[in-house]
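Researcher: Sequence recovery benchmark, item below. Answer with residues only.
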């Protein structure tokens, strides 16, 4: 029998963060995250190390989330996990754990699309966007324009041909000898600089993205300047970061505006790790004033990978009785819709 106010445990393990959350009646009661610092020394996520750390972290994080929410196993109506996309080894840990727990407790199992969950993060707290709304999901692994028509009907109308925006930030950060993840560092340094170095934007179709060319342009630009001045990066770091950020952010805003005009949508949202970028947030707010849009931006804690967004998506799946069975397996390339 379906509980109209279900209590659900949700687990997110798509990449390198192990997260668990409890939602009850559509209200998030706890949201715990264990980060993996081990990847910093490698300048990126090492899949094998990530899956091992998930195995270490998942039980303590789940226990802490349940304790913080004052919820016991017998109170759970369902358990949810990230079905994909993501790293196979990382997804396997979360999937295997939740399958075992759901089987032991004899409760429904809910598989959640990670990218759809980023969009559903907007429903954790007010203000919640009305359907239909346009959402830019932008992270280290994805850059997509999505029309959300309801919690179970989402349509990708634009995506990247190659690198995601977050990946471009991180790889350019390597050129600048910045720590990983470089995106937040570039954001911070950009606030102290000026976008004085022009970098080209990719000439792709109206709603498509491409950031591989930007990486190449920045790399050759730096090589050329370093031949003239070995201290060029140190002397111009803030301005380089501001220029890179301006190029990426302006590209994202232009694509949002094109999509909004094409589909006649005035409710605009952003989601994913890069939606925490201050430059993007400010640019979207400025464009919203110009275009009379209503803009929706999640709290910072719900932008990066977290189980609260998995829990919110699972809440609606539960009410729709959208469950999976014990034969389910992770899908690293799972797509929206």
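Model:
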């Amino acid at each position: 029998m379906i509980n109209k106010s279900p209590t659900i445990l949700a687990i997110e393990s798509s990449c390198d963060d192990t997260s668990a959350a409890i939602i009850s009646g559509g209200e998030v009661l706890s949201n715990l995250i264990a980060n993996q610092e081990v990847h910093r020394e490698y300048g990126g996520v090492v899949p094998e190390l990530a899956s091992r750390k998930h195995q270490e972290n998942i039980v303590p994080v789940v226990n802490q989330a349940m304790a913080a929410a004052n919820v016991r196993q017998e109170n759970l109506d369902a358990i949810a996990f990230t079905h994909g996309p993501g790293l196979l080894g990382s997804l396997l840990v979360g999937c295997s754990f939740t399958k075992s727990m759901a089987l032991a407790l004899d409760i429904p199992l809910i598989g959640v699309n990670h990218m759809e969950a980023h969009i559903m993060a907007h429903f954790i707290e007010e203000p919640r966007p009305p359907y239909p709304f346009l959402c830019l999901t932008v992270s280290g692994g994805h850059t997509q324009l999505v029309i959300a028509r309801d919690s179970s009907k989402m349509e990708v109308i634009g995506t990247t041909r190659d690198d995601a925006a977050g990946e471009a930030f991180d790889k350019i950060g390597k050129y600048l000898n910045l720590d990983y993840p470089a995106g937040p560092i570039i954001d911070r340094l950009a606030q102290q600089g000026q976008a004085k170095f022009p970098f080209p934007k990719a000439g792709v179709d109206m709603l498509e993205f491409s950031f591989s060319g930007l990486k190449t342009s920045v790399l050759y630009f730096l090589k050329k300047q370093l031949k003239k001045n070995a201290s060029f990066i140190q002397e111009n770091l803030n301005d380089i970061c501001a220029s890179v950020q301006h190029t990426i952010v302006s590209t994202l805003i232009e694509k949002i505006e094109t999509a909004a005009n094409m589909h006649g949508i005035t409710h605009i949202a952003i989601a994913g790790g890069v939606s925490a970028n201050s430059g993007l947030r400010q640019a979207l707010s400025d464009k919203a004033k110009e275009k009379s849009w209503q803009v929706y931006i999640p709290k910072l804690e719900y932008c990066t990978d977290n189980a609260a967004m998995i829990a919110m998506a699972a809440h609606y799946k539960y009410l729709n009785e959208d469950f999976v069975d014990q034969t389910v397996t992770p899908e690293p390339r799972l797509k929206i819709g």
